[in-house]
Amino acid sequence: xxxxxxxxxxxxIAADQLKLLSLLGLENGLDQQKIYILAWTTTPWTxxxxxxxxxxxxxxxxxxxxxxxxxxxxxDSAIDLNYYLVASALADKIFGVGGYEVIARKIDPKxxxxxxxxxxxxxxxxxxxxxxxxxxxDDYVTTEDGTGVVHIAPxxxxxxxxxxxxxxxxxxxxxxxxxxxxxEVTLWAGKSVVDLNTxxxxxxxxxxxxxxxxxKEEKIRHSYPHCWRxxxxxxxxxxxxxxxxxxxxxPRLLKNNKKIHWQPEHIQQGRFGKWLEGARDWAISRNRFWxxxxxxxxxxxxxxxxxxxxxxxxxxGSIEELKKLANGKLPLRNGELDLHKPYIDExxxxxxxxxxxxxxxxxxxxxxxxxxxxxGSMPYAQLHYPFENKQEFEDNFPANFIAEGVDxxxxxxxxxxxxxxxxxxxxxxxxxIVNGILLAADGEKLSKRKKNYPDPxxxxxxxxxxxxxxxxxxxxxxxxxDVRFSEKHVEExxxxxxxPLWNSYSFFVTYSNIDGWNVEQAKEDFQxxxxxxxxxxxxxxxxxxxxxxHMNDYNLTKATRxxxxxxxxxxxxxxxxxxxxxxxxxxxxxxxxAYQTLHTVLVEFSKLLAPFMPYLADEIYKNLTGAASVHLAxxxxxxxxxxxxxxxxxxxxxxxxxxxGHAVRDKANAKVRQPLSLVQVGLPGNIDQQIVLxxxxxxxxxxxxxxxxxISDFTDLVERYAxxxxxxxxxxxxxxxxxxxxxxKAGEFELLADGKVNIEVExxxxxxxxxxxxxxxxxxxxxxxxxxxxxxxxxxxxTVILNTEITQELKQEGYAREIVxxxxxxxxxxxxxxxxxxxxxVVTEGEISIxxxxxxxxxxxxxxxxxxxxxxxxxxxxxxxxxxxxxxxKVAVRRS
Length: 896
What we know:
With 896 residues, this protein is α+β, with helices and mostly antiparallel strands. It is 36% helix and 20% strand. The strands form twelve sheets. It has a six-stranded mixed sheet. A hairpin with a 2-residue loop joins strand 32 and strand 33. It is elongated. It starts with a strand and ends with a strand. 33% of the residues are buried.
């Protein structure tokens, strides 16, 4: 906000001015002008509460005088001939370079300590002692801004209060709790101190000729606390408060923190642990109407601060105790017990009844409890412990698990921990997940006023509450990291996870209904024979093991992210590779095993998914099992006999090769529907080529190539390059890394049989590893680029080379695949059932017509066509006219 800042002039009293001059050896060297200390403030309204001026213990000060051009009349009040004490480092900034002359340098502030100055105002003259309006020292004073001197108003700042207390100074509170000047401040009594006009009036008063205590004023833009609700300025206001001596409990708090399992782990000794190490006494009282009244009664004399009555108070521990003290009277509202204001304040009792040596009545103190005290009391208050439910509480304390935002390390987590340590010397919770803060897409805090977030209801209606929830789980928010939230993130989750899962479920339901398969046909002790079934069940149980482990560790991010990969495996590999097993007309054991496998996977996965996407998981589970709810089912158990690590690795390598092969096609602009003649695969030394050869038909079909070859020497086909990993090599080899990188760029390296790389620098051979289990730890990456006629992509030591030369026969097969795609699109447009048989018409000419004839069986098989015609004039359900390489092709379909 923009405020008026002032530099005020504080004149040393005459005696101390002479003392200072004597210390500086200037007894006869100055005229009769005053010596002022300059102090800067951005809150002029605090000046009536000034009680001291603080200088820095290690700061050098100077005595200066403004330079006035030409001859001057000392009696001219408009000319400033006074002397000023400021920090040496700030003199240029205050007076301007060359705008002052130095009278004395390197003034030690310790020599000034205790000197007295004339107060700017006399509102509180009769209330202050000789210990006020002094120069004091403290190391919190800096030369970052201002004058190097801080004006001390102890009732409006923590450091001000601390340093004033250190010097046992008087405390002046010149502002009421309503933010307005008290009546003692006669010039501005009743005026709001945060009103900009108030600061202006204070500055004008200081500048008045009869005062002459304003050196400089200017507007300044600075950070200032505002109410988060109404956006109005706040005041730091010193008041009496009740405290818990948390500082004395620090060893106990730190000990009990070690018993808590934090997620993420670093919060324990980091943000929370450091907060505990610096823990200060906790102010638990608030001066408000609304809140839980503090159950403390004091005698009338103590309430009036009369001497000798400091200990005339009592904390009432129960309703029964209060009833007894008050002779049966309790606070009632409409005939019912109400322990809140104003009813509780109607209860008074004699001090004698409370065992206090006093003849007066006792009344409740006016304060209520800090709401965080109530939050920290939640474990006990919710069960009205110890007055009720004693056994239930003791059986369930500490809580097994809680979760809240990272800001609660200084809020709820902290207050729970403090109160539990005081009452039971144990933590209040055993496990805690600390969430990060959701931010707007641009990184700003979410704000109701700015509305910089999508409408939650619209988001839930369009993208789904489950998808929103799953995005949050898979983000780093559950790891106490801030996350930028955008509707696009949820949309991505829908596309990559929710829809593939639902489509997988829909696929199963559709085909199982067609074939009449149901769970009653499932075999016990199911051991499928098909490799795809074995693989997806292995992946499922490995997933159960991983998710269970991370859930036991309360790591939601690591528990959910593997689910995304699993659904990709299920949808884009298992189901797609198994599709023909479900399509075939005969109901053989292979088809039934596929049904049982997919049913098992969907049911068990829905159990895993239930805590994260409860609605979707329940819908899938209930429909597939007929059970009441997935949320009543047991958590899935790992069946180790299904986990086949070698098979998982085999499929992972195959999928990697296929992905690299598609990347090569993209690079060469070769459509997947266009068959190619050959794919060649090179593997790092730690992968057995038999893994690939065992899956040769699968890889060829996925990449739409006719043949696959394994190669170890492909120097005739590609050029090899090496990229050192500077992040890994730097800590290991230091400055030599740059020479290693240059050698690699120049191609001066040797690839060894085990996949490692030799690079020689100035006679020393460095052996770099390219086959680490964790690719991020590889010291060097080996890559390849294809020579003419070949395209190549490599990753983590796996190299895939495609022969992209297209023969006439390959081109014809590509035409046939284009026609198949068009027919499949027409089937969808016509809303045929997946098992409907059809008639097909394809009318074209030239090479494309030849291709249709040549690949007629293939086209019919892929589209469930019982007849493919290349001429005729019948009525068709749907037809389309397309172009393939400039040639028109008419394609039509009709249900049989």
